[in-house]
Write a structure and sequence with these properties.
The chain is mainly alpha-helical. It folds into two domains: 70 residues, lambda repressor-like DNA-binding domains (434 Repressor (Amino-terminal Domain)); 173 residues, no CATH class. It has 14 helices and no strands.
């Protein structure tokens, strides 16, 4: 799949995969069934509809905006792009903590006050601007405040996928196809059911994937919640994660050769 099939078609794939009808989805989302049917028939979804469909489908609404190729509203974007490195390293430290420690970090992040946004979030463009599934999943990760290097490091710590930073740009440009392994591991970090992501991207899973490990589930939750942190808050969270590990070793803070920091 190299061209965007349209949001309605993708929504239809997802509903078919879940054996869910338009009326049931509309009821869950508090929408008129005709609104859902219109989108399934090819109408462009509006912002309010996407915001309502997100929780009804168990998705973050920002991911639906990306799938619909619509501009993501500022309130759904990461607060501070300069927090990216600290968020990444907090997550990679967190997965090496016991479950209680991971829960403590997640509670801390959720308890931090929301600071005022100082600038709009502008993720690095995907070149060429591809409309295929690789672009969708990479854009979703960008809206978790991960750059190419962040993706490489975090996926390597949380999942079996170990790729260079540059490879994530290649996936986003559509020059490297998604595989069942990539779909499963991307889904784990995005907090999306792998079977749902496979249905949306048109990738055939050769077997039913096992549930993600508890560490991966917690990493996805922490990554999502940390989107609302400023750089100072993210640094504070990282310092706590590092102290909880009782390890001053900071080798994984170093950028690998040729890494992308934009």
């Amino acid at each position: 799949m190299t061209e965007h099939p349209g949001f309605g078609t993708m929504l239809a794939w997802l509903l078919d995969h879940r054996e869910l009808g338009a009326q049931e989805l509309a009821d869950r989302a508090g929408l008129n069934a005709d609104e859902v049917r219109a989108v399934l028939a090819g109408d462009s979804p509006g912002e309010e509809l996407l915001r309502r469909l997100g929780p009804a489908l168990g998705f973050h609404a920002v991911d639906l905006f990306i799938l619909a190729r619509l501009a993501v509203p500022d309130d759904m974007a990461p607060l501070d792009a300069t927090a990216a490195m600290w968020v990444r390293n907090t997550v990679t430290d967190a997965v090496r903590l016991p479950a209680a420690g991971r829960r403590e970090l997640l509670q801390l992040v959720r308890s931090l006050p929301q600071e005022e946004r100082c600038s709009s979030f502008a993720p690095k463009p995907l070149m060429p601007l591809a409309g295929g599934p690789g672009a969708w999943v990479i854009r979703m990760l960008q809206y978790r405040n991960l750059n190419w290097t962040g993706m490489a490091v975090t996926l390597a710590f949380v999942t079996p996928t170990y790729l260079s930073a540059a490879t994530y740009g290649v996936i986003g440009s559509g020059r490297k196809e998604l595989t069942p392994r990539l779909v499963t591991d991307f889904a784990a970090l995005l907090g999306i059911d792998a079977r749902d992501l496979a249905a949306l991207t048109g990738v055939m899973l050769t077997e039913v994937p096992p549930p993600p490990a508890p560490e991966a589930v917690d990493a996805a939750a922490l990554l999502w919640e940390a989107r609302r942190l400023s750089a100072a808050q993210a640094r504070h969270t990282f310092d706590l994660a590092r102290s909880m590990r009782g390890d001053s070793h900071d080798a994984h803070l170093m950028e690998p050769p040729g890494s992308d920091t934009c």
